[in-house]
Write a structure and sequence with these properties.
With about 290 residues, this protein is an alpha/beta fold. About 45% of the residues lie in helices and about 20% in strands. About 40% of the residues are buried.
Length: about 290
């Protein structure tokens, strides 16, 4: 991917904030958080394992959304460690703070922050983590250099990102939807869910930013949905910032056809009455010199 012009990067920033801090998106995540957190638990566990957490560490979690993985990091670094969870908008953070109170966690702080311009001093953290956020950083190198800056010497960065787009999680939902409605072609310079699908891409970006000991692990993580296929489709239709407006363009009958085709495709991955999808992810780690 070429480095886009500054004005394009600004456009990407504006779109990212609009997509992920809008009321519809926040409401959907509030409704479905428990189910999604359970479904993606394996990704969170893989990330935490790579982060090599222990009590007493100071951890910065980027693009925390409604609290994943910060809510799982906090117990791992307690009682003397702390987590600062960040996101672009206050509404997502307020939901994460509510979940924190409900769990009785006292070592998480929430800050509204952009990964490209972190409001923290140099060498403030032992770890920087991010789950499914780095693919969408508009100015990736700027964000990585900020992560490097706030890490202490020897500190560790751990990111979990999506692998290839051609996997059931996408092909059986967005791929099916594309047969019913024209999906606008993305800007080739824009951040994308499969940004790091090519082996070595994320590693190269981390090394360019100044990190050392960079490692990429390509993993297949099983994701178990603890509800019906109909509920899975409902969750997809409400949470996906790409699918939601496209589904709204269709008549009720056509939306029903999309639902039927998606559910038919998902049937192949039902095990013991539960949907289990293989998620292809990349978990990368690196250290500050």
């Amino acid at each position: 991917m070429s480095i886009p012009a500054p004005e394009k990067i600004d456009q990407f920033r504006q779109k990212l904030k609009k997509d992920w801090t809008g009321s519809e998106t926040v409401s959907a995540w509030r409704k479905w958080h428990a189910e999604i957190a359970s479904f993606t638990r394996g990704v969170t566990e893989a990330l935490l394992n790579e982060a090599e957490l222990r009590p007493g560490l100071a951890v910065l979690d980027l693009a925390s959304g409604v609290g994943d993985p910060a809510l799982s990091i906090a117990p791992a670094v307690a009682p003397s460690g702390r987590v600062v969870a960040t996101d672009l908008g206050p509404d997502m953070i307020s939901l994460a703070a509510e979940l924190t109170r409900n769990r009785g966690l006292s070592n998480i702080e929430f800050r509204e922050a952009n990964a490209e311009s972190l409001p923290f001093s140099d060498s403030s953290f032992d770890r920087v983590t991010c789950r499914f956020g780095a693919m969408f950083f508009p100015d990736l190198q700027k964000a990585l250099r900020e992560s490097l800056r706030v890490l202490r010497p020897g500190g560790r960065l751990s990111f979990a990102v999506w692998g290839k787009r051609e996997q059931p999680f996408f092909s059986l939902t967005h791929g099916v939807l594309a047969r019913f409605v024209e999906i606008p072609k993305p800007d080739p310079d824009a951040p994308d869910v499969s940004r790091f699908a090519e082996r070595g891409r994320l590693q190269g970006e981390l090394e360019t930013a100044g990190f050392q000991n960079v490692k990429e692990n390509f993993l297949i993580v099983p994701a178990r949905w603890n509800g019906s296929l109909d509920l899975y489709f409902q969750q997809f239709s409400e949470v996906s910032v790409m699918a939601r407006p496209l589904l709204a363009q269709l008549s009720p009958a056509r939306r029903g056809d999309v639902r039927d085709d998606i559910i038919a495709g998902l049937q192949k991955f039902v095990q013991d009455s539960h949907l289990v999808l293989p998620l292809e992810i990349i978990v990368a780690s690196a250290t500050r010199p």
